[in-house]
Design goal:
There is one protein chain. It is globular, with a radius of gyration of 21 Å. Helix 5 crosses helix 6 and helix 8 runs parallel beside helix 9 (300-311). 33% of the residues lie in helices and 23% in strands. The longest helix has 22 residues, at 261-282. It has helices at residues 19-36, 38-43, 54-61, 72-75, 94-109, 134-142, 157-171, 261-282, 300-311, 324-327, 334-341; strands spanning 2-11, 15-18, 65-68, 119-123, 147-151, 176-184, 202-212, 220-229, 235-236, 258-259, 290-295, 351-358, 362-370. It is of the alpha+beta class and 371 residues long. It has a domain at 220-370: Peroxisomal Thiolase, Chain A, domain 1 (3-Layer(aba) Sandwich).
């Protein structure tokens, strides 16, 4: 019996923001801030903010565009965050709503109905509530029997979720499982931070995993999974249910995404490179046998360096497809977007690696084979 990926789905928001629009909005905010606090800046008690620019964003990240659920609120210099309408308890949550759209596409691609699915794992970096589980809401909206649960391992949530699905399938708990990652990253991004205001976008991905004794051509068999975590404070978000009890400032920047970007780059690259190399060696594979690297879509320079360390040369575009230029960093969904959009051209027997990595630090790596 093999565990296969039989279908994938992608929900992309209708609205998008390019770098030019984002920079114009941010710079208006900077001008307003510097004018408002002019005297304090002159006294030296407050540091003046500096303009952002398109060249800086593309150079440090490779990002040119991002899709978002709400464009107007983000680009409003007086607001600088999405404007999302709160749903009543009788309405579908925002995350569940976009998750259903991605799941339905994945189910259609896998030729599956709700009665064929036994479980839903909602694996993403942020969940809009503690309970009831968003996964159970998705399960209910899709009309799926069985069980569902949420899990969060930041930018590695999708691959960790796939590992959980593989374990559940191998144990006999389920025959077919949906792993869905509704990533509304614009909700936790500090658009007032020059070093990070361009990083994230919104999206949702979904995969159907199933047990299959007779392998059908065109699917992907999961050859191996590997997980690793190493504690680090260099990527952090302190928003949580104890904030009010701590009398914490909910408007503080640390209640949104914060990172020490240079430290993250320096520390994560060798961790990811070594994990993928070790996994290949454990499975008797050489890097030359790998047709494709579907890596986490956070930073182009980081991915290029990881690939170069593995390959011993610069990767060709088809070997390591990039989607972050269009989608930006979509947390755990990034590597799955790359897989969803760039897998159909592979031939039977071709082997690839799906790898996500991020806060934690956490790394999830999957070796898959086209069948």
């Amino acid at each position: 019996m093999s565990i296969i990926i039989s279908g994938s789905g992608l929900y992309t928001p209708e609205q998008s923001i390019n770098n030019k629009e984002l920079v114009e909005s941010y710079n208006l905010y900077v001008d307003s801030f510097n004018k408002k606090y002019k005297q304090d800046i002159q006294k030296g008690s407050i540091e003046a903010l500096v303009h952002s620019n398109e060249e800086f964003i593309k150079k440090v990240s490779g990002i040119e565009n991002r899709y978002v659920l709400d464009k107007e609120g983000i680009l409003d210099p007086e607001r600088m965050r999405p404007s999302l309408k709160e749903r009543t308890n009788d309405q579908p949550s925002i995350q569940a709503e976009i998750a259903v759209k991605a799941c339905l596409q994945a189910m259609e691609n896998a030729n599956k109905q709700a009665t064929d699915i036994d479980a839903v794992i909602c694996a993403c970096a942020n969940l809009q509530r503690a309970y009831p589980a968003v996964a159970i809401e998705i399960q209910n909206l899709l009309g799926i029997e069985g069980y569902a649960y949420d899990m969060n391992v930041a930018c590695s949530s999708s691959t960790f979720g796939i590992q959980n699905a593989v374990s559940d399938l191998n144990s006999g708990l389920a025959r077919s499982i949906l792993v869905v990652s509704p990533e509304i990253c614009s909700g936790h991004l500090n658009f007032k931070d020059r070093d990070g205001h361009f990083i994230f976008g919104d999206v949702c991905t979904a995969l159907v995993l199933e047990r299959q004794e007779e392998l059908e051509r065109g699917n992907f068999r999961i050859v191996d999974t590997k997980l690793k975590t190493v504690f680090s404070n260099n990527i952090r978000n302190n928003f949580g249910f104890l904030n009010k009890s701590e009398d914490s400032d909910l408007s503080s920047p640390d209640k949104l995404f914060i990172q020490e970007g240079k430290k993250v780059f320096k520390q994560v690259v060798p961790i990811v490179s070594s994990i993928i190399q070790e996994q290949l060696e454990d499975n008797g594979l050489s890097i030359n046998s790998i047709s494709r690297l579907w890596l986490h879509q956070a930073n182009l320079n980081m991915n290029l360096l990881i690939a170069k360390r593995l390959l011993g040369r610069d990767p060709e575009s088809k070997e390591m497809p990039i989607v972050l230029n269009e989608y930006a960093n979509t947390s755990s969904a990034g590597s799955i977007i790359a897989f969803h959009k760039y897998h159909e051209d592979l031939n039977k027997g071709d082997i690839g690696v799906i790898c996500s990595f991020g806060a934690g630090y956490s790394v999830g790596s999957l070796i898959v084979e086209k069948i």
